Every structure is written in C-alpha cells, then in structure tokens.
Known about the structure:
With 280 residues, the chain is an alpha+beta fold. The protein is built from seven helices and nine strands, in the order H-H-H-H-E-E-E-E-E-E-H-E-E-E-H-H. It folds into two domains: 50-107, no CATH class; 109-273, Trna Endonuclease, Chain: A, domain 1, CATH 3.40.1350. It has helices at residues 49-53, 56-78, 81-107, 112-124, 191-212, 247-252, 260-273, and strands at residues 132-139, 149-157, 160-168, 175-178, 182-185, 188-189, 219-225, 234-236, 239-243. Helix 2 (56-78) packs antiparallel against helix 3 and helix 5 (191-212) crosses helix 7 (260-273). The protein is globular, with a radius of gyration of 20 Å. It starts with 48 loop residues before the first helix and ends in a 7-residue tail after the last helix.
Amino acid sequence: MAITERSNAQQARGQPDQAAEQRPPEGEPVADRPAGHGPAERPPGPRGLGDRLGDPAVRQWIQRGAVALVVLVAVSVVLNVKLGLAAAVLVVVGDLVRRSRTASSVEAWQKASAVERKTERQLKSLEKNGYRVLHARAVPRDDEGVSDGRIDHLVIGPSGVYAIDSEAWDKRLPVRTLSHRKLFHGPFNKKDRLDETRWEADLAGKIISEQVGFEVPVQGSVAIYGPSIPWKVMRVRDVDVYAGNRARGYLRRRPRVLTVTDVERIFQAAQESLPPKYPD
C-alpha cells in the first residue's frame, strides 16, 4: 500500500525528497498536498485521558468550570457561599448563552441540507474515478458509542481519506486568516469549529485504523459556501479550508496513494464502524 504524507507531514513513498520532512506552517496553501495513508506497526489502542481532553466540547466545559470555580471562591470570601454559588451558576449559564448567540447570529439562516447537497453532487461525479463517499456519519465519542459529532462527507479514494464538513456562512461577512493560525468570519473566531472538524477527523481515523489493522489518517476539511474565499486551499489548525465549489478539485489534483483494494477495504471498515447520523 502506498504511503504518503498526512496532515502531520509524513513524506510520500516514491515522491521527490523534500528539504525538510516536517509539517508545513499552519495556514500554508496546500492545494497539491495529499492526505496520506500507510501501514502502522500496530493498530491504535483505546482512547485515553489525553484523547478525551482533546475533545473541543470537553475543553470548553473545563474552561467554563474553572472560571465558575474562581467566581465561587471569590464571591464566597467577600460575601457568602450562597451568593458565590449563585454567581458561579450565572457564569456558566451566561457563557452557554453567549456561545449559542455567537454561533447562531450569523449562521441561523443556514440550510445545511442545501449546501450538503451541493457538495454531494460534486463528490458524486468522482465515483467514476474510484472514489467512495459516506454522507452524514456519526463519530462515537465514548466507549458506549454515544455521539454528538458528525462528518458531513467521508470520502475514500485514490488520493486518500477526507472528512469534509459543508458550511453555509453569511456572504456579507469576509473570511480571513490571522498569522496563518486563526480563521475569522467577520468578527467571529472559528477556532472551535476548526478544532471540532480536526477532532472528528482524527477520531474517525483511529476508529477505522482499528478495523483495518493499519494506520488510516483522515484529513479534515471545511467547504465554505456563501462568502468569497480569497485562496484556493488554506491549511489552518491542521484543517484544509476552501470555497465550497472547489470540493471536487480539492480531491482530484492530489496524487494517487491508495489502490482499488485499499479504497474498498477502508470504505467497508468506515461503513461498519461509523454509523449513519440519521438512521432510517
């Protein structure tokens, strides 16, 4: 099975030797860089505490709890414990409301199914080139298989494996990067959204790897519909970001790294281990 670099910059076998075999700076254009696949010495083991702490949703609750604890202690010392508890609860509720408004103020008008269908039509045209696609797949987050994560489009093909999320954003707000490490939609920092995409892609790769017995890296990406995107493909926080209408080209211009047998084997493993998010 051919080996090529993934998002963590593994160098492709048979590709020209580069000056440095390391991950490119975040935010660097990567239109021609493939996500890679290759056999691992051993399949990944069960997820540990570090993996769980890497979950963006878990990190948010840890941060929220830490702030609430500080407020509880401070108000309890100055006033009393009851007021401290009340203030801590208000901090948690206020943060939940703030994040909800931030996420929905720009994107409440979004029709996710519409943009997903646009991406689906692009991906369907790649079937004749040996690509297999699974839509709306759940990503289990714990040992009981509970999931609130979803990959809109899991693509397995000659050029690798990709987790693509289709996003509809307000076209009135510009999209920009800052220091090649942050992505903004107008005034809104999309860090959490990128971290969520990367987390789901990495977790999907671990789950599939356990099924097939060798490492299957999954490259996370976000296809954005609505605002103008001033680049072809930009890697920000290990996630590829591009205009929605470039989804097909994003995949087609990458070199072949998987055989037909590899594609089918990974597809079957993904189909069995990543259930439909909305089963019939």
